[in-house]
Amino acid sequence: PAENLIEHIHDEHYEERYNRQNLNHTTMICDAGRPREQLNGRWHFSVDPYDTGLRSDWYKYTPADLQEKHLPWDYEPDGGDVVTLPTCWNMCRPEYFYYEGSAWYAREFSYLADDPEERIFLRIGAANYNAMIFLNHEYLGNHYGGSTPFFVELTGKLRSKNLIQICVNNSRTLDRVPMRNTDWFNYGGIYRDVELLRVPKDFIKAFRIALAPHESFQEILFAVTVSDETAQDEIRLCIPELGVDQVFALKNGKIEGTLTAAPKLWSPDNPKLYDVNVYFRQDHIAEKIGFRQIQVQGVEILLNGKPIFLRGMSVHEDDAVMGKVSDREDLLRRFNHAKELSCNFLRLAHYPHHELAAKLADELGLLLWEEIPVYWAIDFENPATYQDAENQLRELITRDINRASVIIWSVGNENADTDARLTFMGNLARTAKQYDPTRLVSAACLVNKAKLKIEDRLADVLDLIGLNEYYGWYEPHYEELAQLLENSQPDKPVIITETGAGALAGHHGTTSDMFTEEYMAQVYTRQIETIRPLSYVKGMSPWILYDFRASRRYNRFQRGYNRKGLIAQDKQTKKLAFYVLQKFYQEKASKNE
Ligand code: GCB
User: Fold this and answer.
1) Are 187 and 548 in contact (CB under 8 A)?
2) Residue 263 DSSP code
């Protein structure tokens, strides 16, 4: 025992044992409409700031081993705190609030096979950032990327009673996406659902369906991939309300095909969804899906062939009580506030939000911009960093591919225009396009402050340009905005993806006093006046719906919060600027502009 102890306290390379490349450990599985067994609820929890658990392979030991060897133990999978998943550990105890590092979750669960041939997968909705999975004292693999779901196959490894341990590490690192510096709070833990999914021996791995992105509104494209790569038999696709019930032959486990049908088109005014079912051997998936087209033509954004102005708002996933956890109630409150503002669009910044967001937006009729955290000064030269970003992009697109509400994939936010960044983000934009030709690709781009012009080489590979500008706040010379917008005559649509000002709710003064509601309202008024006449600005998503936790903001008005919310962090108290934007959006909506 003494030798072991010495070995592990001197081991500074232990992380190599826990493969930091997650790609080999994720398995694609289409999870639409499948029954799930929840593994949420009570888990044992221990923080592990010095990574003692990884250094000394805590997962290997059973209580019986320790007993037998007469070893004192520093960790017990059935000891420590108890937390209820999903949760962010920061919100569980005051002493965990700023905790960054590793922490261990453990629980037991029982398993009884329904069908001896079934395959079984663990699905984790999201864990921030690195999650290492251990089942019955065996290391199964890890997943990196704090906001996208992942699957771990457990087939053949389960007993009637099982111990699962998950070590999650939320350390901010230079080489990852996001990197060390952000303007949001670094929550940690397993903050979305943990579930088990059972599928038949042969199952549907991927399914996508969408209206073809061209003139006709009657051609539907679909693609199915099944787990049996040699399959030459059939899948059946049914959309009862459209009279579709067709059988298609697989070729080597895949089929890409087209259908002719005339769906009622999905839009924010008429968020019509159809029940879609796919059958393959014993397997069946079911989803509610809307059909719509989104395109860009010159400086117009066309939804179902008609020009649209995106009346939007940016939102973070942040809650004063729950941290990064969102639930249906939180999401509905967010969407209701957006509707109250007369929005038809939300920018889900700066990372993939809860998957329920896009499902609810499909039902309620809101268009979405979804984003990966390629934020500020990412290590653009580093191939591992790129792999992390592309993996998150693919996982996000795979997750939300059938959500009509999602119209834009964003590949990043405010990144300096270097050659390395152009290659990195250019590759991400091309990947998104190739992977999903039915949606638009964008990013929050840059301005050339010397020339007062939107100037970003990345714009060439984007369908539309996102512009973050803070004239009236970070840029004191307000007049420069009009100049900048006049100097830039882009050949594609621009969305003002961010603009805004900070104000503490209830703090009043004159329009020249920063952090007052009056100052903030004035910024909104002037922004709207300047932007309104511009024919190429086709949308706005000001920063931001609610005040949110930010660990770099500690002046007397901020106290740990970014105060640019139109509504305070209680998600109730509206600031004056709310009504300024509401008036503008109501006018736009009523004129159908
Ligand atoms: C930005 C960032 C956003 C910040 C915001 C601010 O440009 O994109 O993440 O929170 O400014 O408030 O400074």
Assistant:
1) no
2) P
Residue 363 vs residues 197, 239, 253, 370, 431: alpha-carbon distances, Å: 25, 17, 32, 17, 28
Centre of ligand 1 from the C-alpha of residue 475, in Å: 13
Cα 498 to averaged position of ligand 1 atoms, centre (Å): 8
Task: Map residue 335 onto helix, strand or coil.
Answer: helix
Examine the pLDDT at 75 and tell me if it is beyond 90. Answer: no
CA separation (Å) from 289 to 209, 343, 371? 8, 22, 21
Domain ranges of the chain: 2-199, 204-292, 306-590
Q: What are phi and psi of 406, to 5 degrees?
A: -80, 115
The hierarchical CATH code for the domain 204-292 is: 2.60.40.10
**For 306-590, which CATH superfamily applies?**
Glycosidases (3.20.20.80)
> What is the CATH topology of the domain spanning 2-199?
Jelly Rolls (2.60.120)
Which residue has tokens 């539309």? 464
pLDDT reported for residue 532: 92
Going by alpha carbons, the residue nearest to atom 3 of ligand 1 is 183
**Side-chain half-sphere of 431: how many Cα atoms within 13 Å?**
20
Q: At what angle do helices 576-590 and 517-531 cross, to 10 degrees?
A: 20
Distance 183 CA to ligand 1 centre (A): 6
Query: Omega into 164 within 30° of 0, i.e. cis?
Result: no
CA distance 149 to 86: 13
- Only one residue has tokens 């939180």, namely 330
Sheet holding 204-211, edge to edge: 204-211, 219-226, 254-260
What residues pair up with 295 in beta bridges, in sequence order?
Answer: 302
Q: What is the pLDDT of residue 6?
A: 64
Interface confidence (ipTM) of the complex = 0.99
What is the residue with the minimal CA distance to atom 9 of ligand 1?
A: 183
Test site for ligand 1: of 348, 445, 498, most ligand atoms within 8 A of the Cβ: 498
Q: Are 166 and 133 in contact (CB under 8 A)?
A: yes
Distance CA 124, CA 143 (A): 10
Among 71-75, 107-111, 228-232, 421-425, which stretch is predicted with the lowest mean pLDDT?
71-75
pLDDT digits (tens, 9 = 90+) for 128-149: 999 999 999 999 989 999 999 9
- Tell me the percentage of the chain whose pLDDT exceeds 70: 98
**Average confidence (pLDDT) over 116-139:** 94
